[in-house]
Amino acid sequence: EKQVIDLLNDINEFAKQNKEDSYYLQPLVVKPCKWTRRDGSQIDAWEVLDGQQRLTTLRLILMYLFENSFTRTEMNTFSDNMIYDITYTNRPQLDFSEPNPQDNIDSYYLATAKSAIVDWFTEKAQDEVETAFKHCLIYPSKPAQVKFIWYVVPDEKQTIESIQVFNRLNKGKISLTSSELIKALFIMDRNIISNNDRVEADKLTFDWNLMERQFQNDKFWYFISNGNDNQQTRIDVLFDFVTEKPEENTDRDYSYRLFQNLYDYCRAQERNDTSIELNGLWKRLGIKNMRSAWEYVIRTNDRLIAWFENNLYYHYVGYLVSVGNQPLDIYNRLSIAKQQKKDREWTNDDTQKEFHKLIMEKCFKDKDKYLNTYSIDGLEYGSIYVNRLLLLFNVESCRQKGVRFAFDSFKKERWDIEHIDSQNNASLVEHEDRLRWLKNVAYILSIESKLNERKKSAQPLYEICQDLIPKYEKNVRGIDKAYTDFSKKVLDYFSAGDAAIKNKDCIGNLTLLDYKTNREYQDAPFPYKRYCIIREDKAGKRFMPIGTRNVFLKYYTNSNTESSFIDAMRWSKPDMDGYMKEIHNTVDTIFNVVNANPTNSNEQ
Question: Of 91, 248, 319, 488, which shows the fewest CB atoms inside 10 Å?
Fold first, then answer.
């Protein structure tokens, strides 16, 4: 039922577009044969090697239209005996008109499909939809038509090879993806131009497998994509790049349709048929046959691999893709910039500056103004720029140090913007979260109560916490007020005194943290967060961005001038200042590339 409805919806969407184009169904593989009728006479027919289900469903749709929506004029023009006939070899008595679901499994599925078709048309605005279906399925003069991709296997040797090819592509009757259909076109073209010499097709298949293996590498895949579900298979990204698929286009078979146009054009040229026009994309690229298209695919794939292997491209392309940009847009932007620089040779510095401009334009531009280095200091929790800046800081830190940022590990997790030093007011409301917070605090207080310099103030708090935990587990009456009062005392205790950070929402008190770790220590005091970060980093089971790890290790605090470096258990304003200085040292060059002219500055 689902596949029947999907087909009806697809045809309906195509019909509503009212374009002078064709909608191609998946390949129908047939071979010519003689069919013996019940009366013993023989007729010319087609044996269907692949596509029985699609043919059956289309026949049921046509039968519905003939029986329910034809006007008297249309009945005089067309008749129901014009519908192609299907005979199932193993069930020749199958009744398409009134299938009895109790007779056999095929009759059951026929009855289910017919019912789904009737229900679907009944649910729609019948007259309008049925007219659109008749125009694209029956009227030969209408410009927009639904067509099968028709593949005829002429002899026994090709029959066997064809079955093997399409069985590999469509094993288990899983729908062919766009890339698999493109692969079939390339293989069929190689077979034709090489007179079925398998060497050509086998070499293409070998090269294809090498490319596909590259896309199965998570490090490469998550560098060039965000791993979303819009792609049918990973290698589809490559063909969307080649065919310059628009970002807003949702047609999953967009790339395949363009390659099908090229394939049909090539076959038409061999027949001296001028009725098929080459798509404008292929004309612009100078591609007139499948072989040159394949060479262009290989060159495009090599370009993506070169990006992946280059430290500059890897980090900047990876970052731009991570925040929602398409590889094709990045490539076009660099190509245009190179073309405009005609007075001298393009250098690596030019590439880096162009990446910086692109990052600013795509990520840190508000209407017609760019954020500048002064804007960074004013960013606060909740701003759309905080996530982009912290990710850029981590990616650029890795690039400058020659360490690869792990886009694959990053994109497999959910990420939060976390306060390094907890907010002034505890925000936890769930009983379970508060109980976990108490246990986290008890762990740290148990350590501090044993230290000479902390024992006097930590011991009383530790005893209160130990008393609260069993009461909170039993949910004793009035325990929530006791929790609130205690949480304020704890936050005061773990503050840095006069050097405490006043605005906990400022960018200098924020960092990237994966959702799981953040969930475990949400609102916990700084020392417990630090303990968790070190524990997770040692275990190596969770990805920890370099900036996040270094913040909690006080890596950016000046150990020669700041006493806060010695006190690893408190996060203070000097620590924040050192962190902010490192952020500026890392990203200011990028921000300054578009802010050299003061008129471009955004002083907000």
Answer: 248
CB atoms within 10 A of CB 73: 8
pLDDT tens by residue, 305-328:
999 999 999 999 999 999 989 899
- Output the pLDDT for position 115: 92
Judge residue 552's burial from the number of C-beta atoms within 10 Å of its C-beta, 0-12 exposed, 13-18 middle, 19 or more buried: buried
* Cα Rg of the chain, angstroms: 33
Q: What angle do CA 314, 247, 416 make, to 5 degrees?
A: 60
Contacts of 447 (CB under 8 A, 6+ apart): none
What 3 state SS string does 143-202 have?
A: CCEEEEEEEECCCHHHHHHHHHHHHHHCHHHCCCCHHHHHHHHHHHHHHHHCCCCHHHHH
- Stronger pLDDT, 381 or 570, i.e. the higher one: 381
pLDDT > 50? residue 349? yes
> Encoding tokens for residue 408?
């694959």
How far apart are the C-alpha atoms of 381 and 383, rounded to whole Å?
Answer: 6
How far CA 295 is from CA of 62, 176, 204, 521, 555, in Å, comes to 42, 23, 11, 53, 49
**What's the mean pLDDT in 519-542?**
79
Q: With CA atoms as reference, report the closest residue to 30 among 51, 57, 58, 59.
A: 51
CA distance 158 to 164: 10
Q: Residue 215's CB: how many other CB atoms inside 10 A?
A: 21
Using DSSP bridges, classify how beta strands 22-36 and 145-152 pair: parallel, antiparallel or unpaired: parallel
Whether the CB-CB separation of 353 and 329 falls below 8 Å is answered with no
Name beta bridge partners: 380.
506
Answer yes or no: are the C-beta atoms of 532 and 441 closer than 8 Å: no
CA 318 centroid distance within chain: 13
Question: What pTM, to 2 d.p., does this model score?
Answer: 0.67
pLDDT band at 125 (very low <50, low <70, confident <90, very high): low
Helix-, strand-, coil-residue percentages of the chain, each rounded to 5: 60, 10, 30
In this structure, the number of other CB atoms found within 10 A of the CB of residue 410 comes to: 19
State whether residue 375 is helix, strand or coil: helix
Lowest model confidence (mean pLDDT) among 124-128, 320-324, 444-448: 124-128
Q: Over 60: is that where the pLDDT of 168 sits?
A: no
Q: What is the pLDDT of residue 80?
A: 67
